[in-house]
Design goal:
Chain A contains six helices and 25 strands. Chain A has helices at residues 7-18, 74-83, 134-142, 199-208, 262-274, 328-336, and strands at residues 2-6, 32-38, 41-47, 51-57, 63-66, 68-73, 88-94, 98-103, 106-111, 130-133, 159-174, 178-198, 215-220, 224-229, 232-237, 256-261, 278-279, 282-289, 295-301, 305-311, 318-319, 322-327, 342-347, 354-358, 364-368. In chain A, the strands form four sheets. In chain A, strands 6-2-3-4-15-14-13-10 form an eight-stranded antiparallel β-sheet. In chain A, strands 11-12-25-24-23-16-21 form a seven-stranded antiparallel β-sheet. A five-stranded antiparallel β-sheet of chain A has the order 5-1-7-8-9. In chain A, a hairpin with a 2-residue loop joins strand 17 and strand 18.
């Protein structure tokens, strides 16, 4: 095996593949990057068990002198290629189990792993796949996946529920204290589908997707999903089980609705959380809609001090005064994903979940459960 | 006590004072920032036992309604002021032991510490002080302090030795494996002086000094030094004891001298350290001057692989071929402080210290002890 390639192109694609590279694993072969050279193309494959990436390089810089395959210690390869300065690098297998990297005045050899130890990975596409504009898809994930649980006591909640009906693709994530939901319209109707994708997989996927107008293809399988995007195949396992019925959690009638300038609300909560009483990880802040329709955001820590912020709603308040307490983290994270500069918060009662929506964020809602205080 | 001040000015000076704020200390009062308002000026004082900072704010934004003093929980004050958006903030003591911060629609109170618990700090200037251009002084510290020891087994080596004779101020730091030395010329002669300043203090001092053409004043005391720079007084304790005689460690005669392009040498060592054999923290690389005057930088890790870099000297090599091994970290850190784009490395022998100098770094030398390999 021997080929030369532009250093920048190799590095760019290694960094994509690195997203699925195992760092700690009982199987050392998974800390390796598999490289295949054949038919004028270089293929790079990585897997950490949960996700697998297969990326193909087919650019004018690739010159294959001898086709072949090898399994390279992943971390070292990426670090070395990153530090090379030569525009072109040559990779070849020498003495059967050594990779030799030649670049300008650098001559580097790396001990290869045994290719036979690498698992057989499937990157099979389906005939019946779903097409989504990549920017629309990124928004769908960005606005929901953050709300999934990060603790494993209910594994199903560490995933994002993707549900397809007709031409509507809906994503829901919840950790049981807050919920995020967003739907998008596809260009055509598809067969119905209901799966749970680990939110971690989707967060990694976001990092390899660019902000262009290309479509991303979703190929669903019995227990995995394959995302096809440009020259990248990204596969994730699915979570098994039934996702909870979340529709019934969302209140339909509201006693009070307040419209805020998003940034003003964010900075007020941000300051209030500095001194707030902490219940575990969560800084608790209070919201108080006064009779004069001014909103007070406050927090109180007897040992440290007190913050009181006044926020003026940007539209007439609908409904009656109310006091409610909640985790500042949840509201800050929810506000962050809105594109709208004004957000509407609708309350049902002081111990009922409240709902955040925004005019320029169609079919998206963020729900947060309040916290009890004395 | 009550005053108003520009938020930016307050934050700017708090961040300077924060450099001497204790985070972990048996004395909780030292986690406080002392603020005094009097005579149209605000003074901010902090101390962590090793260093103390006193900074005076006297700008047009300061309006003192009622003079006074207070001791504020430091971390919270800085975080709060950082997050305020109002251009002007008002600070006042209310109910005797509460600081009230009013800014735009924010109303914040912080429980104050007891001012009586704060130590009496001295910021006494001397009549006979030393004047140095601040940029020259920063270079002196930047090029030496990094070589001081960070481990406490020989406390004296955690300091930088400052020695004044006539108009020459010389700084030396060593951790016994490498040594850094630089001298500067002052504008006049002074009384001789020989002290050891903790390198940590000097690193913190660097962070409060700007890159302007102002002078910094050095006021030496029995067991402390006070740096006076613009509106900042920065005091550090001195280390007690005798600094080792380092002059005799520096070889005077050299068998081989090689001139390198600094950047080429840096990147070659950088790549070689990626795979090098590690003895504790130190990646060992080898330098081999071949008969053909090409230099090989190499490293070898039997389990991972091998790096071989060729570096071409940029001037005729003086002396005979040689092989030497050393810690890549020491040479990389030494090269980093040179302003010269070409550096000269002079060797006495394979187990003798070698010396790095640069044409555009007058009166500076970096010395490194080689490591033994098999």
């Amino acid at each position: 095996m021997r080929f030369e390639i532009s250093k920048d192109s190799l590095l760019y694609h290694l960094i994509i593949a690195q997203k699925a590279l195992s760092t700690k694993t009982p199987n050392p072969a998974l800390t390796g990057i598999k490289i295949d050279a054949a038919d004028g193309k270089i293929a790079i494959t990585t897997s950490n068990g949960d996700i697998s990436i297969h990326v193909t390089i087919e650019d004018p810089s690739v010159v294959i002198d001898a086709p072949g395959s090898m399994l390279v210690p992943g971390k070292y390869l990426v670090e070395i290629v990153r530090k090379l300065e030569s525009p072109i690098v040559t990779l070849s297998v020498v003495d059967q189990n050594l990779l030799r990297i030649e670049a300008d005045r650098s001559d580097i050899t790396l001990n290869l792993f045994d290719l036979d130890d690498y698992p057989a990975l499937q990157f099979k596409t389906q005939e019946d796949f779903i097409n989504v504009n990549v920017r629309t898809f990124k928004t769908l994930i960005r606005q929901t996946a953050f709300a999934a649980s990060t603790i494993e006591n209910r594994p199903i909640l560490t995933g994002v529920n993707l549900k397809l009906e007709g031409n509507a693709l809906k994503a829901v994530a919840t950790d049981s204290y807050r919920l995020s939901q967003k739907a998008i319209e596809l260009k055509q109707n598809y067969t119905s589908m209901n799966v749970i994708v680990p939110s971690k997989s989707l967060e990694e996927l976001l990092r390899v997707l660019e902000n262009n107008q290309v479509d991303i293809e979703l190929h669903f399988n019995q227990n995995s999903v394959l995302f096809k995007y440009q020259n990248i195949l990204f596969r994730s396992r699915l979570l098994e089980g039934n996702y909870p019925e979340t529709a019934k959690l969302i209140p339909k009638e509201f006693g009070t609705t307040i419209v805020f300038n998003k940034e003003q609300l964010q900075t007020a909560i941000d300051r209030a959380s500095l001194l707030s009483y902490r219940d575990g990880q969560n800084a608790i802040v209070k919201l108080n809609l006064r009779e004069d329709d001014v909103v007070e955001i406050s927090s109180n820590s007897p040992e440290i001090g007190r913050v009181l912020e006044e926020v003026y709603p940007v539209a007439e308040v609908v409904g009656k005064p109310l006091k409610i307490a909640f985790s500042s983290k949840y509201l800050i994270e929810a506000l962050k994903v809105f594109n709208s500069s004004e957000v509407s918060i609708a309350f049902t009662g002081e111990i009922r979940p409240f709902v955040v929506t925004g005019e320029f964020d169609p079919q998206m809602l963020q729900l947060i459960l309040p916290m009890k205080t004395d």
